[in-house]
Amino acid sequence: MSRARGVLAVAAALAVLSGSCAAMRSPEPGTVVSEPGPIRLDFVEWNASTEDLLKGAVPEAARALGRWGGLHEPVKITVVNSHWELEQAVDRPLPGISAWARRNQVLLWDPRWWPAPPSVEHDPILAAQIRRAQVTRLLAHELTHCLMFQRVGGPPSDPQDRIPFWFREGMATLTAGEGAQWPPPESLSQWLAAHPGVDPLADAGTLSRTDPTVAYGAAYHGFDFLVRRYGDGTVLQILDRMRARGGFPQGFQDAVGVSVASFGTDFRRYLSWRGFQPARRPRP
């Protein structure tokens, strides 16, 4: 469901950089006051440096949700101490994943165990700045999933994938400002030319397992194409119509005025015909 790209290897060096001091779960988990409302912090194993990091990153991440009206229900961020614990909590393997969102909860692998880039291993200040930016983007991504699940209603973890991958991840990556880490439209255009039988939106769920870079790139640019053509208000209408109509295809058509298939065709043409390139000015 919600798939925020993350890091996997355990880096003990980062714990040294952060000056961490672990203790058992805090008897009163912290609450962060943010624009969408209070977001509760909960720890399997409380850590002072992680709590300080989250108290700074959560409000910044939550501000990004303002364009979609913010959260409608309380959310708890549960920090687990290992990637194995994250997979156990979700009950599935999560390669490349550092967090998982549900309607009212974000499960987060403790960032103090994420590896730092080798270039900053001897620069604690730069390492802390990079980690703060990583956590802020990741939480903005995951909290966007919470927002859309709340707005749509239904199961708390959306197990049937009622929201298509391209829309679900496109909305989250766009809100978190993660576009720079995915292939640009020109690369997708070239990939599409080499794979003419693949629909980058309709097949994005399958591509996320076989070619995740293309899947997330298509999701980001497909959602950006939707927003630039129809506006933020239409995105919210799609979610609201899903809640009323009980499904994405009909909710999309009611809000946008075209079918999901027709929109997908328009997006493929946009890539194939390189509609993303600036128009050439006529010669004088």
How would you explain this protein's 3D organization?
- The chain has 284 residues and is α/β, with parallel strands linked by helices.
- It folds into 2 domains: 12-152, Glutaredoxin (3-Layer(aba) Sandwich); 165-272, no CATH class.
- It contains 11 helices and 5 strands, in the order αββαβαββαααααααα.
- It has helices at residues 12-18, 48-63, 83-90, 124-152, 165-175, 185-194, 204-210, 212-230, 232-245, 248-256, 260-272; strands at 31-34, 37-43, 75-80, 99-101, 105-109.
- It has a 5-stranded mixed β-sheet.
- Helix 2 packs across helix 4 and helix 8 crosses helix 9 (232-245).
- The longest helix is centred in the middle third of the chain and has 29 residues, at 124-152.
- The termini are far apart.
- 40% of the residues are buried.
- Residues 1-27 have low confidence and may be disordered.
Structural class comes to alpha/beta
Number of domains as seen in the coordinates: 2
**Architecture of the largest domain, CATH level 2?**
3-Layer(aba) Sandwich
User: Taking Cα atoms only, what radius of gyration do you get, to the nearest Å?
Assistant: 20 Å
Poorly predicted runs are: 1-27
Q: Would you report the number of β strands?
A: 5
End-to-end distance = 52 Å
Instruction: Give the DSSP E fraction (strand runs of 2 or more residues).
Output: 5-15%
Which key terms come to mind for this protein?
alpha/beta, 5 strands, 50% helix, 284 residues, Glutaredoxin, 5-stranded mixed β-sheet
